[in-house]
Amino acid sequence: MIKGLQDTTTLHNGVKMPRLGIGVFKVEQGPELVHAVKFAIKHGYRSIDTAAIYENEESVGQAIREGLDEAGISREELFVTSKVWNSDLGYESTINAYETSLKKLGLDYLDLYLIHWPVQGKYKEAWRALETLYKQGKVKAIGVSNFQVHHLEDLMKDAEIKPMVNQVEYHPRLTQKEVHAFCQEHGIQLEAWSPLMQGQLLDNPVLQEIANTYNKTIAQIIIRWDLQNGVVTIPKSTKEHRIVENASVFDFELTKEDMWRIGQLNQNYRVGPDPDNFDF
Questions:
Q1: Higher-confidence residue: 278 or 189?
Q2: Could you give the CA distance from residue 1 to residue 249 in angstroms, rounded to a whole number?
Q3: Where along the chain is substrate bound (predicted)?
Q4: Among 189, 272, 245, 73, which residue's Cα sits nearest to residue 235?
Q5: Which of 85, 95, 128, 233 could form a disulfide with 192 if both were Cys (CB 3.0 to 4.6 A apart)?
Q6: Residue 238, Cβ density class (10 Å: 0-12 exposed, 13-18 middle, ≥19 buried)
Q7: Over the stretch 110-125, which tens digit does the pLDDT of each residue have?
Q8: Does 54 participate in catalysis according to the annotation?
Q9: How far is the C-alpha of 78 from the C-alpha of 220, rounded, in Å?
Q10: What is the pTM of this model?
Q11: Which helix (H) or strand (E) holds 156?
């Protein structure tokens, strides 16, 4: 039973990663973002996910500094993730991109650094850079994002270190069974972005029926489904009541039947780009 907001999963290198965090995709720099991240930290969130391409690392960094002071906790209690963008993939350019992200965030290290997309012909050199950063102790864990099974197999043929995390689009309409099974087999933690399908699932009748049974919202049902499937999840919100709601998923457990019913909603439908047909 997953007991609380600060529960963690242990990555294959021994690093502990919170099972639930907050994402900041498409949230612009500025006071709204700073307030949201600070509020999340105050409420007990310990994982924050950003990326270079979001162009909001400065505000996330400001929120972390102010949030740590206000919550009275140390940097070591937070798990901060960022990602290298496609235009920076390459050995030296990836290392430079990492240093740029650190500077923007105002941090000494990241807990997790990811290759954002599997750009063919480029991700292996970028991975070599991530391995270097990891060996130098500049990042606690390294991983990938949006990698399909064949990308992972290709990467791992030459890699010294296998990815610790694969962050993918994951929700009841896109259950990524093959990717999930491969990651489980190889000890790679699956992490969900867009777990609520950018709001498109919030009027689904099957999910509404299940939500009514537990006296929960559809968002809470989906987040709980992620967690019970062993998938780390990072729903995005800038609204205080949503941040609280998304974390109120530890006082109930979905039955096996309801877990199965939610999984049956899969249509292999993406709201984001297809990693195999993404115009980079």
A1: 189
A2: 11
A3: 116
A4: 245
A5: 233
A6: middle
A7: 999 999 999 999 999 9
A8: yes
A9: 23
A10: 0.97
A11: helix 149-158
